[in-house]
Amino acid sequence: MLIKDKQWNRIKNAISAIFIRFSLSNSKFKNGNIDGIVSKVLEYINKNYHQDISLHDIAKSVNLSYHYLSKIFKDKIGKGFIEYLTELRIEKSMQLLINQNLSIKEICQQIGYSDPNYYCKAFKRVTGMTPTEYRLSRNVRGIILLKDRILKNTLTVILVVILFIELSFIFIKLYKPDFYLKQSNGSNSENNNKIKIGFSLGTLKEERWIKDRDILITKARELGAEIIVQNANNDDQDQLKQVKYLLDQGIDILILVPNDYKKASKAVEMAKERGIPVISYDRLVLNSNVDLYISFDNVRVGELMALWLLKKVKWGNIFIVNGAPNDYNTKMIKEGYDRILMPYVEAKKINIIKEEWAENWLKEYAFSVIDKELQRGTKINGIIAGNDSLAEGAIEALSEHRYMGKVYVVGQDADLWACQRIVEGTQLMTAYKPIDKLAEATIEMAIKLVKKEPLNIERKIFDGKYYVPYYVLQPIPVDKDNIEETIIKDGFHLKEEVYIKGWQSIENSIDCNFLLQKLLLQNFKFE
Question: Which of 41, 218, 286, 386 is the Cys-Cys partner for 464 at CB 3.0 to 4.6 Å?
Answer without folding.
Answer: 286
